[in-house]
Design brief:
The structure is a single chain. By secondary structure, the chain is of the alpha+beta class. The chain has one domain: Cytochrome P450 (Cytochrome p450), CATH 1.10.630. Helix content is about 55%, strand content about 10%. The protein is built from 20 helices and 13 strands. Helix 7 runs parallel beside helix 20, helix 13 packs across helix 15 and helix 15 packs parallel to helix 20. The longest helix is centred in the N-terminal third of the chain and has 35 residues. The site of protoporphyrin IX containing FE has 23 residues, from helix 15 and helix 20.
Length: about 525
Amino acid sequence: MFENYTAIPFVKGSAAVLGGILFLYVLIRGVYLAFFHPLSRIPGPKLYAFTDLPYLYYLLRGEWPYRHRQLHDQYGPVVRYTPNDVSFTTANAWRTIYGHRIGASAHIAAFPKDPKGYRPPLTGDPNIVLTNDEDHRRHRRVLAHAFSEKALLGQESIMRHYVDKLISRLGERAKLGGSNAVVDLARWYNFTTFDMVGDLSFGAQFGCLDSGGYHPWVATIFDDIRLITVDETLRRHPLLNALVWSLVPKRWLASRLEHLERSRAAAMKRVESGSMGREDFMSYILRHNTDGEDGKPSDGPTLTPGEIVENANILIIAGSETTATLLSGATFHLLTHPDKHGRLVREIRGAFATEADITVTALGQLKYLNAVLKEALRMYPPIPGALPRTVTGAGEVIDNYWISGGTTVGVPHWAACQSEFNFHNPDEFVPERWIADERDAAYENDNRAVSQPFSVGPRNCLGKNLAYAEMRLILAKVLWHFDLELLPESRDWNKQKIFVVWEKGALNVKLTRAVRG
Ligand code: HEM
């Protein structure tokens, strides 16, 4: 007992010494990082070069893209925002970081995805987004068949089925009138794109539009997305594991596993039923997996059953929240700019004699509709942050700065598109800036190549054409059928938190059936 008492001052003293050593280590390391590290000449606040804690603070609060924009506004197009992360807001950086690069004598691979920013697949089987570059080529070649021009034409009937259902459900609400004609359009867009992509990926029926609510499976996806920022924090600071997980709602973790199980079951069921003569994603994937003689695996690249499950899982997430987000943003900006809204309505209602004439191909020709979508992608990109990549080899010059090998680099899409260095009146919704023969001279020098919402290079969005087709069809049909009015409670709708994707609140809109002359 006495021995224990005499040990206390010694233990206290040792703890103080250890604490002191740790403090000195952190201080010396921080000073080195901020003032002597190879990246120390890159603009940015010294505190952010000292430690990544300010970045993680804003990230976990859902405010990082806003802070990131402020830093670029203050320091210019190149900013070091943690000891090892540098971001760029130029068109040249998009090409250097994400594009195919041609070296002096040979092709150089694009920078690989940074493992800090991407969590490994839960099943252990790789998917197209998370796999390494070599396997990625195989995944992309198999999946590309499902996104070809031919496939898109075949998928139009599935798309139209869900868009018609959306219009019919909204029509029921409009008919009721009064407060019943007020709907949260952000939710209805989500119902539509989830139903659509669930059917296209698995032949699964989520039934969101029928029930007017989220299928439990879809609800798990939102929880899963919410975990992405937590995951990143832990990959940066594994020692915080126990603390952070104790703060995270247990429901989020359960949801992740549930989502995985549901995807696995649905994908396997769909695989077992074969090509089925349907024109969904899976029919293309399966056809090209077994197009050898007698139904044997093809000589070309193929995917394992585990990889098919993982990819179906990814397609649901990549292909639903993104398009619904953009449609919500476009609708919000149109309804807060009545002149732009009016012009688009006139274009759509004037272009077609009957609803049956509204096809994906015809919509591709509508000048103002396409300018509205581009401007909405600039103002409210579904993936607002930077997609992180790692600089390979000894390093690389990007935008005249030497960036050493191992540094994480990226272009934060929203910050780049809201920058006065790139766009005149960056906070203003001006679709005309995308129309060459209509824009004011002041917009002539806009750096339009900086807006790359689908990314560029070998790992850019595979679903871009499908996304445009969906977005044009849904927005055009909604505006063809209904007059829309934004309710006062949604006037600040775009002031949202961002946890990798925007945390969309209710976009309350009053619907009235359009009267055609
Ligand atoms: C407005 C809608 C969309 C936007 C803004 C968007 C954006 C993106 C971006 C930025 C990436 C690159 C991700 C990275 O580098 O990690 C990506 C990848 C991808 N997207 Fe989209 N996306 C949209 C819609 C869709 C749709 C509808 C689908 C399919 C149903 C889809 C399927 C994919 C796939 C498969 C990849 C991975 C491509 C690869 O790694 O080779 N996306 N998307």
